[in-house]
Amino acid sequence: MAKARTLFDKIWEDHLIDVQDDGTCLIYIDRQLIHEITSAQAFDGLRASNRRARRPEANICVPDHNVPTTPGRGGTDEIDDDESRIQLEVLEKNAKEFGLPYIPINDINQGIVHVIGPEQGFTQPGVTLVCGDSHTATHGAFGALAFGVGTSEVEHVLATQTLIQRPAKNMRITVNGSLPLGCTAKDLILAIIGKIGTAGGTGHVIEYAGPAIEELSMEGRMTVCNMTIEAGARAGLVAPDEKTFEYLKGRPQSPKGAQWEQAVEYWRTLPSDPGATYDEEVVLDVTEIVPQVTWGTSPQDEIGIDGVVPDPKNESDPLRRASMERSLEYMGLKAGTPMREIAVDKVFIGSCTNSRIEDMRAAAAVAKGRRVASSVYAMVVPGSGHVKAQAEEEGLDKIFIEAGFDWREPGCSMCLAMNGDMLLPKERSASTSNRNFEGRQGPGGRTHLVSPPMAAAAAIAGHLTDVREIIKD
Amino acid sequence: MEKFDTLTGVAAPFPIVNCDTDKIIPARFLKTLTRTGLGKSLFDAMRYDPSTGEENPGFVLNRPAYRNAEILVAGENFGCGSSREHAPWALLDFGIRCVIAPSFADIFFNNSFKNGILLITLPKEQIESLMQDAENGANARLTIDLQKQEISRPDGSTVSFDVDPFKKHCLLNGLDDIGLTMQKAQKIDTFEGTQKSKTPWLYR
């Protein structure tokens, strides 16, 4: 009988082209998403070597990282900042020159790469998908082997449709129980990162399994897989199931007709075989978790909202203790301070982690009939033109605007603060994004990572707070 | 890519754990269209006073002994976070050709080797010794011999290290990955032919 294989093993073996004597593998890459920040030098490389794109139609180019999110924004030519405008123009020019599909800034299909890939049906179970962005892990929610690459590898994929790799190790994280009221996929993944640490998944692909994962919507699974990189693993995976097929059916690039049936039949063979073995196994139960929030400058620095800022004195490793002390100094926090007393200046609801329709609905449910505190500026940035349109159809934009939130155009925005949406030095945010690194949301800015309902709750309270207290009123 | 065979240079101590690529090069410097010129923004938030833009004299790479450092001795999980290749580009543009640490993040690891930067992973105890060497200012010179997979310390003792044989081969010879892969074009064609019949919906 054939050896029991994991989902990762199956996708890997189905894409293996060559194995060298030294164990280095050449694997086929089915799909690539391309944005403006990590691609210009790759296209330059192709030009310098007189190479073409091997399969232009296997790519989608879209601007997201550096686009303005100002309501009613104009086209690329109306961007004031010269460097940003030129970067967007260069992406469009490169896409045209190499014959790659390109989505312009104000097209309804525009949005964050990791939101539009699934929306378009470009992301499918069993494919290998890369992008010059570490949050490419998101697409693993569909049972696709998806990971972030650097610009040299973007060029390598454009030229050859392959990558030189070594197989990753298999890790399975089984999540038991059921998420309690007030907790979301974001709280689940923050709890996982807190448990295994920011380097806990290095060298591995993480397969998420168990009842709590099966119960999640596709949006929730995307949030979980998205932050896999914050645990050090390049790729996260969830076995495709009926929810996956339901989500994909009828999408522009999903298979049609007889090919749909053929594809679903193949997709059903992908889940890990019973008895497949993993290099690492982690099990946790989320039934008792509380809404999560970060206190430091690494996503692993997380704690329940009912907790207090931890004390570095309790850390035995000297380098780690020094790192905690530095984090607290940067964050302007004192050990022992209750998390729910920390006042925020800005609230950001958006990013490839939490900008999908379900996130908009969850935040709007908290915002409805309430007011953003006068001391807070709060913004909602939908992940794509389609998310924005859907939210407006449901009246969510009105709920946000009436509550005092700014309702903006799609893009990466304040997640990485390239486009002018940013924190000022020492300003503090509650943010639904994925990284609380020093300077991530602006030089000197202080970030607390939370779920969309928790972010909306912080906007209303003016400080980090337990969303369960707000929704019970 | 520039070849890497041996390197003798000053090693700077950088005992920070989980140094992320946002710390190595913040996102606002990612508007560039080239691979060069990022060295001046390397470690921007630590290296310069944010209000005046003046150099922070206490930062290791601003201290006279380390201004020409070519090697970093760093803490665990160096290069975590964003996939930006601007991080190794900034290191290289500053003049760093080798980083030695207990562990590295996966994407940064690949990106560095593709730019001719050698990353050496060693157990924590050995990192502690090399960190002490690096604390010795301008005398903190290490010699890295990639062929022999050996680091020579100032006291004449040596530390051996492991390196992926394929990555070593590419570094020693300054080889371009794409050129190597294109030699396998026929295998790629064959793969596509098979895949097209097995999963035709992936081809339009």
Question: What can be said about this structure in brief?
Answer:
Chain A is of the alpha/beta class. Helices cover 32% and strands 16% of the residues of chain A. In chain A, strands 16-15-14-17-18 form a five-stranded parallel beta sheet.
Helix/sheet category of chain A? alpha/beta
The sequence of SSEs of chain B as H and E is EHHEHEHEHEEEHHH
Strand order across the largest sheet of chain B: 4-3-2-1-5-6-7
Total DSSP helices of chain A: 16
Unreliable stretches covering 5 or more consecutive residues of chain A: none
Task: Note poorly predicted spans of chain B.
Answer: none
| N-end to C-end Cα span of chain B | 36 Å
Features:
heterodimer, A: 473 residues, alpha/beta, five-stranded parallel beta sheet, four-stranded parallel beta sheet, 16 helices, 18 strands, globular, B: 204 residues, seven-stranded mixed beta sheet, 8 helices
